[in-house]
Amino acid sequence: MSRSYRMAKRAEAQEETRERIVRATMALHLEQGVATTSYTDVAERAGVGAATVYRHFPTMGSLVEACGAHVWRMIEPPRPEDAEARFIGLRSRTARIERLARELDAFYARGAVPLWGAEQDRERLPELDAFLRRVDEGVAALVAAALGGDVSEPTMRIARAVAHFTVWRALAQAEAEPQKRIRVMAAMIEAAVTRAAGE
Predict the structure, then answer these.
(1) Are 71 and 114 within 8 A, CB to CB?
(2) For residues 182-192, b (16+ Cβ closer than 10 Å) or e, as one string?
């Protein structure tokens, strides 16, 4: 057995252990929250020693970031550079806001559980705050693309507030039927923009 083969096998085993630790951590985050998950909890769930968890992730922040990368790929948040393309061919503000509400509903539905967990612990862990700031940037870009350049910054801030995940979550708890939820969210955004602009 060659040395390079043994090294490759060892690297593969280390990567499998790392992935097992991340999967265990993500499961614990969903069950008990991010901030309350400890190295001991992770080690026990992953079936490894605490020292192994520390070796792969020397800080809890590095472990949270690794989980965040997995969650990011899973929920596919809106990306600022793609925002304008979502509204091509839609001329009226009403049509653009309806598309915005559909886009947000699809994203928030995909990410509902991890986004809520991150929101709850956002102020306790800087890595969660950084993750959610990136999510907020994508949502803000969608809102800006939907409303166009003729909306003032104060009005845009109000529209972003109404389009926020926590507002969607409250709507989802009140109305399980997606099409109705989308119509309500679109109407809320349109009304907020109209009122805020003084139209």
Answers:
(1) yes
(2) beebbebbbeb
- Alpha carbons 115 and 144: distance in angstroms, whole number: 22
Spatial contact of 39 and 54, defined as CB atoms under 8 Å apart? yes
Q: Which residue has 């909890």 as its token pair?
A: 41
Nearest Cα to 109, choosing from 176, 25, 188?
A: 176
Q: Which two tokens stand for residue 4?
A: 């390079």
Euclidean distance between CA atoms 65 and 130, whole angstroms? 9
Torsion sign across C-alpha atoms 85, 162, 123, 36 = negative
Q: Measuring CA to CA, which residue among 144, 140, 150, 127 is closest to residue 66?
A: 127
* Cα end-to-end distance, the chain, whole Å: 77
| Structure confidence by residue, pLDDT tens digits, 158-199 | 999 999 999 999 999 998 799 999 999 999 999 999 888 775
> Global pTM?
0.86
Q: How far apart are CA 65 and CA 131, in angstroms?
A: 8
How far, in Å, CA of 135 to CA of 147, rounded? 19
Quote the crossing angle between the two packed helices 93-121 and 165-174, to the nearest 10°.
100
